[in-house]
Amino acid sequence: MWSKMHRRRFLKGLGFSLALPMMESFKAPIALAAPTSGTGQAKRLVCVGTYLGFHQANFFPKQTGKLYELPYVLEPLSQFRDKFSIFSGLDHRGRNGHEGWKAWMSGYASGSVSMDQLVAEHIGEATRHASLQVTCGNPQDDARVSYTKEGLALPMVGRPSALYQTLFRSDSDKSRIEYVLKSNSSVLDDVLEEAKSIQRQVSKRDQRKLDEYLTSLRGVEKQLQKQEAWLEKPYPKSSYALPPFDPISPEQALQCETVMYDLMALSLTTDSTRVLTFMVPGWSQVFEIDGKRLSTGYHGLSHHGNEAKKIAEYNLVGREHVKRFGRFLETLAAHQDADGQSLLDSTIIVYGSGMGDSNTHDNSNLPTLVAGGGFQHGYHRAHDRASSNTRLLGDLYLSVMQKLGLNIERFAGASNNLNEWIS
Known about the structure:
alpha/beta; Alkaline Phosphatase, subunit A; 2 domains; two-stranded antiparallel sheet; 30% helix
């Protein structure tokens, strides 16, 4: 009976079409199952990735353990050296080049669920925004960080004014938002009703698949209900002064980065979200740093060809990125959460890049730093990639997610954790 159904069958409701999942009877995508979850101590996750990476010799300390000397690029973080740990020798053993950047938070360049989205599923219900994805301007197509379970790249907010509006909407917007939410809810009600009738016409195997799909639709419905509930709570207020225009051109990237970090800190201090990702982009813009215009564009500096002058200027840009990151840590350290803990101590911050050696486009030994989150910090943890006990960046991510309360044992090709290195 189901063999006669059209393979492109759609659910329809109020003029709204929604494709069915892949089944024996007719084909379409299907969502993955959700992971289990447990309990943890840290409460928030922030992931910051710099698209053009860092010069490895000036990011990783020469010494290991606790008595290491901070390298040039990380010197702006000196006041927080007991609040972060540096990890060398970790990566995903994956694809090289800019295309491989997409694997930074997920482990797979083809697009797989990213760590931040697994965490958002676990702790995102407590806030107005389950997660926020931030960048500056309009990055390159391969500069993506956050992926859904379906492998879809989540859009990033690139304008400071748009992020500010997301965080601090006027209460006068309430009726318009309420109308949109109620309309979408009605559409889902109609679609779910039709799906139930189709369920009686397909094979038992397809019934199971359709049930999984309906479960994902109910998840969307739950999100709508959550947003409706949040309508009754006023948006937080802020006196933060935005710049008179959005600094989103490549030449204004460092200025935009500063503002975005400020707004990210505000989103955490107001508890608007507990999961943030920030992709710091990089183009061929020529920066002026400390009154000196660099000799060539940022992207050209990243392909330095081992020329000392280009490496020095590439490090200047990297240090500017780290200065802004350090100011973000300073802001978090100065604010307490509802339990009296500093936001820095209750937030895990993963900082680094999906690019290892930008000069050769080699994505091994990815620059990696973890701050805050209640971990024991202050170390350079070096791992030998040639060791028989080889470890992956995914092992570190397992420790991060477990600290946040997820009951997860495998991720990004990794099946251990690094709890003996960071606990």
